[in-house]
Design brief:
The structure is a homodimer. Chain A is mainly alpha-helical. In chain A, 54% of the residues lie in helices and 5% in strands. Chain A binds a DNA duplex through α2.
DNA sequence: ATGCAACCTCAAGCTGACTTGAGATCAAGT
DNA sequence: ACTTGATCTCAAGTCAGCTTGAGGTTGCAT
């Protein structure tokens, strides 16, 4: 039985709807599909149709991006989710918790940095050699091109 | 009186030394100069010579970058510093304090986000419509290309 | 005076995350 | 049937922040 792709009532939505619901540009959604973050089926006329659950998936992507994750990392996180079926609440909870860990880590790192900076202001140094705020060893770890995230 | 550029003893250093001291690639230093973040004088043979204080300046740039500032923002911050003379301890303290404000803001934002996420995990929603974590209004403000910073 | 590392310029390339444009096709209301 | 807006593909462009490469020059120690 060939699915009635062009008439799907409450399950399949065109890209424009996804765009409106997520606030994402149509081009961005296509890009995410190309990257494999979401999937779509096609109508007879080659137009994309997305599952409503993909809106949710994209919502997650947007939140994760705000936390500074790159698409590659997000992809990894999402890889644990089934592409075909609608992800369950439990799926989301698990991943959300993982994000929570990310945030916690970032907050701790920032807090440590703030403390160091306070010492620095105290002594007025900002000297590259002695300053705990910045040293080469740390940097070596965070090497490589691409976007620079906060206190990686 | 023409300065003896090739023999400056403790004030003028070649780019390689700056590179070693800061851990920056020579190409990056040249790039920063091109962008106007630092300045140099030239020897008779057209080689760059930097003030020792530029190492400090670069150190500041690196720290600020870690906090997620773009070069343009850093440039603005540094614009308040004299290019010619060695910046005073007070100069650094003022800017450092400004950075501290940045960090504080980021920590607060992250903390708020974590709280929201906690609620979300509680209700298991992550629904784009109802979820406080993510809404389009917020996004509109943080629009534009360039590196995506954490919870801008 | 010579060798060689360090330096120079300029153009082009790269990553990430998209956008823009051209030119063509689809879907749905009247 | 027609029009209009949504959608399609594919190539190229953008921005930040650099790196890489080619081809050439400097400066310092011996």
């Amino acid at each position: 039985m060939v699915a009635r792709l062009t008439k799907g009532r409450n399950d399949l939505v065109p890209i424009g709807v996804v765009s409106q619901r997520t606030g994402l540009a149509v081009s961005a959604i296509r890009y995410y599909e190309e990257r494999g973050l979401i999937a779509s089926v096609r109508t007879g006329g080659n137009q994309r149709r997305f599952l409503r659950s993909d809106i949710r998936r994209l919502s997650f992507i947007l939140i994760a991006q705000r936390l500074g994750l790159g698409l590659a990392e997000i992809e990894r996180e999402l890889a644990s989710l089934p592409q075909g079926r609608t992800p369950t609440v439990l799926d989301w909870q698990r991943i959300s918790r993982s994000l929570r860990g990310e945030i916690d880590g970032r907050i701790q790192l920032l807090t440590r940095t703030r403390n160091k900076l306070d010492e620095c202001i105290g002594c007025g140094c900002l000297s590259l050699d002695r300053c705990a705020l910045y040293n080469k060893e740390d940097r070596a770890a965070a090497a490589g091109p691409g976007p620079r995230f906060v206190l990686d």
